[in-house]
Amino acid sequence: MSMVTQIPPSTTSDAVPANAGAPVVLDNLTRRFGTTKALDGFSLRIEPGEFVALLGPSGCGKTTALRVLAGFERPDIGKVMVDGRDIVHIPAQKRDMGMVFQSYSLFPNMSARDNVAFGLQLRHQRSASRRARSEALLELVGLAEHTTKYPHQLSGGQQQRVALARALAIEPRVLLLDEPLSALDAKVRAELRDQIRALQQRLMITTVFVTHDQEEALSMADRVCVMSRGRAEQIATPAELYSKPSTEFVAQFVGVSSRVSVVRTGDHVALFGRDVKIRGEVPTGVESLDALLRPEDVDVIVAPTGLGIVTHKSFLGATTRLEVGIGGAKVKADVLSSAADVFELGTRVDVVANARDVLVTEARPTT
């Protein structure tokens, strides 16, 4: 993908430059479908030029939030602020936003160049300027040699790049991406993910990206909003979200966590013979607690008299993930693959906590 292409503006006078991302505020949004609350007081602030991912399982409200921002849905309660102006009552086609859908939504009877130029045609741009801009954008997304091809002549990844170029053609101040990579194979998805992020960083367009894939969200976004039941569970940088989840839902949904029964003493818990500080609040009125551990929160040591037994082993490349049964819990731990040969199934081990602090939650019955 070319990173030096000069993109002609869509107009010659009062065009908003492509790098002028707009601030966006979703304020206390509620959206009902019958008796179901798809959004339940959802709020989110996005800074100009920021890339924010909405992450969560099916039915959490992330797509509804995007559609409300785009103007395809109207909230029952709440505001959609762009540049400090409430646009709830402004129709989608007048919101100055570009959108890329999961299904590409290209016109099959138009070439790649004409698909990209379609929005400019609706804005009554001259033919020569439409052509120049669409060709420049296709070059930007790595499709300079495919401008005259039709959608059926392009691969899935190429079609999605055309859709991205089309969304950028109108110089939107907000770019909306609705699971644009989910229909692609793993290799193409990873390549396009990196290209979208690099392009967004270059143009500095305020971007909202909906996905259920945590790897996509963590690798692409400046901040991630994890959603559940129509609300924001946690909004944080990818690093903070992974290392410091604030709720049990986030800890279980983002990354891998193990549950271990612990005993509390003040603001610490006893974890594999070591006192570890509790992170955040302790659930009130709860007698039995579990600690939620990441695989890197524990070390595993081969010990003939150890209390743990290796019950599962998965090769992940540079690391190998072990599952250790200990004290009724199943604890996952990562070790270097170069040193994993000693951890055969059935090997007795000791588990040692190395975490500085842990999130605790109400204990669940052992199954």
User: Quick one: how many beta strands?
Assistant: 20
Helix-strand category: alpha+beta
Largest sheet, strands/sense/barrel? 6 strands, mixed
Kindly provide the radius of gyration, computed on alpha-carbon positions and rounded to a whole number of angstroms. Answer: 25 Å
Average pLDDT metric: 89
- Sequence of secondary-structure elements: EEEHEEEHHHEHEHEEHHEEEEEEEEEE
**pLDDT below 50 for ≥5 consecutive residues: which ranges?**
1-7, 9-19
Description of the molecule:
With 367 residues, the protein is an alpha+beta fold. It has eight helices and 20 strands. It has helices at 62-70, 112-122, 127-140, 156-169, 186-203, 214-220, 238-243, 248-253; strands at residues 24-33, 36-46, 51-55, 77-82, 85-86, 97-100, 174-178, 206-211, 223-228, 231-236, 258-265, 268-271, 274-279, 289-293, 298-302, 308-315, 319-326, 329-336, 348-353, 357-362. The protein has a six-stranded mixed beta sheet with strand order 6-7-8-3-9-10, with helices on both faces. Strands 11-12-13-20-14 form a five-stranded mixed barrel. α2 (112-122) packs parallel to α4 and α3 (127-140) crosses α4 (156-169). The termini are far apart.
